[in-house]
Design brief:
The chain is α/β, with parallel strands linked by helices and 236 residues long. The chain is built from 6 helices and 7 strands. The two termini are 24 Å apart.
């Protein structure tokens, strides 16, 4: 495991109560002077801010909680998907308008809004980073059926490329990581239940190593996109 000293004084991790977000918080909390964990349900890591980032009020709560402090890294690890996504029971015809709207709000609009609200804080950092968690389903011609989720992840890639140009003079590095299934406890349980091999998931430690690498880069370097498929799964 790559061991690094404190990379940042101040980080915000969104989606911190479970899955990838919780794992990232647990991984970074001991090496960060101040880690703000954002989620609707309680996070045991860092300073928890309760907020529903799918709403404008939730964005305001996070921004107000952080105040005028320097922000070295915004890690948007949150995400959601349609009902029955990634199963044989998924049907676009049966997706409710509310379900579709929520996916787009959480996966696409919220990262835009939150980034905009925290730009003044990021501009104060000596080496600011923004990392978005995308997905392989956001890549060109990836064989995914989940319409809203794929659209949101595809759109998030566009956000990253546009922000890279918009923030070039600020030298704020913006990166999107597009993985396949990550071996969180929840995903491994789902794979076992579906009778699939755990080898179809990327080891969680591999993703954490990638995040360490991005965070450790100097301000002279920016990685726009990283694709991480499992060796034996779709997209490899």
């Amino acid at each position: 495991m790559l061991q690094l000293k404190n990379i940042f004084d101040n980080l915000i991790v969104v989606g911190a109560s479970r899955g990838i977000g919780a794992a990232v918080c647990e991984h970074l909390v001991s090496r960060t002077n101040r880690l703000i964990s954002v989620s609707r349900s309680a996070s045991p890591f860092g300073e928890w801010v309760k907020a529903d980032i799918s709403t404008k009020k939730g964005i305001e709560i996070v921004s107000n909680a952080y105040g005028n402090c320097v922000l070295d890294g915004l890690l948007y690890m949150g995400g959601t998907w349609e009902n029955n996504a990634f199963t044989q029971e998924y049907s676009f015809d049966k997706c409710s308008d509310e379900d579709i709207e929520n996916v787009l709000l959480v996966n696409l609009l919220a990262p835009i809004r939150l980034t905009k609200s925290l730009l003044p804080n990021l501009r104060k950092s000596s080496n600011p980073k923004i990392i978005f968690m995308g997905a392989l389903s956001g890549l060109d011609n990836f064989p995914a059926r989940e319409v809203a989720n794929s659209a949101s992840k595809f759109g998030l890639r566009g956000v990253v490329h546009a922000l890279r140009e918009e923030l070039r003079q600020d030298r704020i590095a913006v990166t999107i990581i597009n993985p396949g299934n990550i071996g969180t406890p929840e995903v491994l349980s789902d794979l076992r239940e579906a009778g699939e091999s755990e080898g179809n998931a990327i080891p969680l430690q591999d993703l954490l190593r990638v995040i360490d690498c991005v965070l450790s880069l100097s301000r002279s370097t920016c990685i726009k996109e990283i694709q991480i498929p499992a060796m034996s799964a779709k997209g490899a």
